[in-house]
Amino acid sequence: MFLSNHLKLLDHLKSADPARGTPLCALRLGVPVIDAALGGGLLFGALHELSPRAPMHFGAAAGFALALASLRQGSKQTLWIQQEFAATEAGALYGPGLDLIGLASERILILRVPRAEDALWAMEETLKCRAAVTVIAELRNGGPWTDLTATRRLALAARENGGLGFLLRHRSSAAPSPAATRWEIAAVSGARDRFGGLGPATFALTLVKNRRGPCARWLVLWNHHERVFSPALSLGVAAAAGDGSNPARPRRRAG
Amino acid sequence: MWLRRLATDRILRGRAAAPADLPLAIVGEIKNAHRLTALNDAAAALGLKVGTALADARAMYPGLAVEAADPAADRLLLGAIADWCDRFTPLVGLDPPDGIILDVTGCAHLFGGESDLCRDLMRRLAIQGFRSRVAVADTVGCASAVARYGTPAAVPSGGVREILLPLPLAALRIASDLVALLAEAGLRKIADVIALPRAPLAARFGAEFVRRLDQAFGREDEPITPRLPVPAYMAERRFADPIALEADVLGIIEHLGGELSRLLQARGEGARRLQVALFRADGKVHRIEVGTGEPVRDAARVRRLFAERLAAVGDACDPGFGFDVIRLSALATERLDPVQTGLARDSGEAELSHLVDRLSARFGERRVQRLIPQNTHIPELAVAAVPAQAKSARFESYAVEQDSLGPVRPIRLFEWPEAIEAIAAVPDGPPVRFRWRRVLHEVTAAEGPERIAMEWWRDDKGNALTRDYFRVESREGVRVWLYREGLYGREETQPRWFLHGLFA
Fold first, then answer.
1. Could you tell me the pTM of the whole model?
2. C-alpha to C-alpha distances, A154 to A48, A126, A216, A227, B94, nearest whole angstrom
């Protein structure tokens, strides 16, 4: 065997956690309940699908994808593939916002492709490349080019090289897909901070398809300073624990 | 090289069925009269001359075919022929209206010698339908003179003087009225002028005349202005049997890449911009360019980049009957020092850089982008998308204040803010309800306003309205970035609301 193969194996063994019996190479979300359901975390070497529960929740879905990308340690780069028309429909990635959500601008590369099949081709090329790059492909709508055969090639490419790929769809589709997990994301009214302003971003995650465990629903919030997820209490509980002021009334921020 | 019948050849090439001895004249308007500006061989044999009035020519020979002059088309054709001559040497310059100058220093041996080169060039041009005369000499002036006024041949090195002496003075590329002036003074051949003292010549006939004389004899340098940039490094291959398959072309490119990499390695450089010129057997030239982010020397990488580029533009590069010359040149190079590779694994950076190069080759440089912050407070200009291959300066980090638990800038920004209908409780306050894309949202929490005034010093149309930005959360939890355009009362009576971005 080549030396590089030996070293890859060593890497795998190092990242496995013998106490939990987790599999090799998974991206841990940091919330124990979710990681247990996923069997250790989001598996490397696989595709994962994300979609918003309704078109208005697309911002939350994109935010969740960026948060996952920023969870990877070190200075791993992320490639975001976007079709040109998608920028008009749902906006283009905004540099200052990316920094503030936890993904530094130096770590992201953006590829604008003219057609959806080009997006899948680029994703396959990136997954086959040996540079460890997280790929997120934004697909506007399902069609013949995003069906099972096309995405199966992506899953194969990911499995061979251990890359992490996300398919972010604008509309959720129930078509069969080779993705290891499938999520539906919705935004949820989050907690307020002490002055009545908006708190950290809160997501309602629904795991619709999971190869390694059960499907369930969770509420998490994303702390972008420390780049960790933490479980969120539902809004009813949070409001009662506040200072008694009415959270529905808009407050002006001081200064 | 002198294309002696360029204008008529351009017309006659297109006419396959024209009889060979059809007299053809090109007519242009000179001083409000229709005169002949160019003739073909058959018309010249009839005795017509350039400058004859059209009416006289028609009276003499009613069977004369006539076409209108089109100098722009002639220029384009001359340019196309010059590009075709690129296969002999990259230093090709134009000598308008109907001449081309090639610098064949050092490459004549590739074609079997200078006289063979002349004959080959004339033969290839004749196959394509152009009558030409080609001469090779030490200086541009001498070559041009011999091509037009002498017998076309390869002038041996050092034989400039003997060849030039018997030629008429018009061969020195001077204006015709100056030739007439010299004729009045009794000077008709170059031999008459060569022995005269220079100062009186310059005084009487102008410094230009003396300069042309010097250029012809090599006392003064005359550089050629090449039409295309001359590459620093070049490797090429000629085929006796033209090749047309893409796989073969890529294999040749890899082989040429290996040769080029040896040249580059000797100088310690790597290529940043590479061009492949594919010369078709019938004269057309296809040029494909590829750029890289980091200097590259590896032949396999070069082949992959061109494979992507050919996949993207393949239809435009029709091989026709095949390519008989393929040339790989490095247009821009940079210093590349050898790097010590680790024992264990390849560096991820090099792989990433190669991935970026391949994606740029496939989709175009401007589609693979990095986000670089800009020094402006206007939100839509605060970040610029720069091609990932460009070497831009290190950027400073953003200075956006952040004192709340949630981020203050959206993760997605619309290029054109979308107009929404919003109702605010107070004119200056945040909205309580807004309708976006036909869905009504009720606002449960809002932060703001963040007042961003437009750059008044840049605006000259008077429509730089101040914006009050609000981060709002709706009942469903959707967070958006809205602004009201125009200060109520001071700038606008009916301020409009826009949605600019989405938060997570």
1. 0.77
2. 11, 10, 26, 28, 53
